[in-house]
Design brief:
Radius of gyration: 21 Å
Helix content: 25-40%
CATH architecture of the largest domain: Alpha-Beta Barrel
Low-confidence stretches: none
Structural class: alpha/beta
Number of helices: 12
Shape: globular
Number of domains: 2
């Protein structure tokens, strides 16, 4: 089947926009040429749509195995396609934890039947408890894992952090670090500040993240190696990483896109959908994250997709699990940020930015989306098995239309 997309918009890194016809034919997607005289099976008016290379999510939670009722491999694959993502780094925090060659192969073999690329973040320690090491080298040599970390947990044991960096340098692996001090964050449910005090809720201070990043940067200075800091969200944390990059340390960073849209002030009605980790912080931190994206300190935007079932989420605020589903709301979130950051920067942070962090190239893919399309995020349109989102049941702007992966043109219907 040959399909002509008429007038697709492209946006280059400098922000220059161009409209061009594209053709999908025999599994290939490319600009139409004047010499192309094919009789197209279908012509689509795409003059309001934007095309970019496929999006990459560096932080995506999943339930299977063990927690399939929250998110199965199948439902995650469907959610990724509907959200415009062609690849995702899968966190190891399943039951059992993804911590061996067998665990990795189980997920990858199940994922082969779907088009998105699943990249496994292998656990560093057994059961992500911070003590005994997993078979890191075996997971790499036997199953090709190049990204390691503790996922939702912090690798707070300094000795294990140091030795992990030494192990990973044997094969140019990268440590994905969710940096915070768990004891400084213990019993906390939201950002520590004026709002947590008024609500009478135990807070998580900025110090919990700042101390962890500072300590871990010192370890990197000692050992060398590559570290990617995930979901940073404090003003000082951004500054520390900026200084580390200027110094020449091999570090990168990402931020959850929803951290740019909410603050701790939004928790005044105790909505458990807004209970996330790291927590929403204040305006100064948010401003620092925006500046970090603009000056290149922060390399990528992530969904931090954390599906939770109703029994784990919809209860008293202090008992509810942390986490928010973030895939299908990712494009609407970018639409809300477009005036402040611009499409060129936003697309960089989900394409070339995350690709530069991963140790290997991904297959060519494309995402076609309509930034103006309206749709309702509800039971009918939701591809995930979970619905823990403050936007659930609301009308949103920005819709993925097609994803091209592995030679297949996938139309998104929501």
């Amino acid at each position: 089947m040959s399909i002509l997309f008429k007038g697709l918009r492209t946006i280059d890194p400098a922000g220059l926009e161009e409209s061009k016809d594209y053709v999908f034919e025999k599994g290939a997607f490319s600009p139409a040429s004047e010499s192309n005289t094919s009789n197209f099976d279908q012509e689509i008016n795409a003059s309001k749509w934007i095309v970019s290379t496929g999006w990459i999510d560096l932080r995506c939670g999943m339930g299977e195995p063990g927690l399939e009722y929250k998110e199965s491999i199948e439902s995650l694959a469907e959610s990724l396609v509907a959200s415009g993502f062609s690849a995702a780094v899968i966190l190891p925090n399943t039951e059992p934890v993804i911590q061996s060659k067998g665990d990795v192969d189980f997920v990858l073999n199940r994922a082969k039947r779907y088009t998105p690329e699943f990249l496994i973040q292998g656990a560093v320690t057994k059961n992500t408890d911070g003590e005994n090491f997993t078979e890191i080298l075996d997971m790499h040599h036997q199953s090709g894992v190049t990204v390691f970390g503790e996922g939702l947990k912090s690798l707070a044991n300094g000795d294990r952090y140091l030795k992990t960096l030494q192990y990973l340098q044997k094969f140019s692996g990268v440590l994905f670090d969710h940096a915070y001090d768990p004891l400084l964050a213990i019993f906390g449910h939201m950002h520590e500040g004026e709002n947590s005090t008024m609500l009478g809720v135990k807070g998580i201070p900025n110090l919990a993240e700042d101390v962890a990043i500072q300590r871990n940067l010192e370890i990197i200075r000692y050992t060398g190696g590559r570290v990617h800091f995930q979901t940073i969200n404090t003003e000082k944390g951004v500054g520390l990483i900026r200084e580390a990059k200027a110094e020449g340390l091999n570090v990168t960073a990402d931020v959850s896109i929803y951290q740019l849209l909410f603050s701790d002030a939004d928790l005044m009605d105790f909505d458990p959908n807004l209970k996330v980790m790291p927590p929403f912080r204040g305006d100064k931190d948010r401003d620092a994250l925006i500046e970090g994206l603009k000056d290149g300190t922060i390399d990528a935007l992530v969904s931090n997709h954390q599906p939770e079932d109703r029994d784990s989420k919809f209860m008293e605020f202090d008992l509810a699990n942390f986490g928010m589903v973030g895939l299908q709301t990712f494009l609407p979130a970018m639409v809300l940020l477009e005036k402040e950051l611009g499409w060129a920067l936003l697309l960089e942070k989900v394409t070339t930015g995350p690709q530069s962090i991963l140790p290997h190239e991904l297959a060519q893919s494309w995402t076609i989306f309509d930034p103006e399309a309206q749709w309702t995020y509800n039971e009918k349109s939701n591809k995930s098995l979970s619905s823990n989102s403050p936007w659930y049941g609301k009308d949103l702007k920005g819709q993925v239309k097609y994803v091209i992966q592995k030679g297949q043109l996938l139309e998104v219907n929501v």
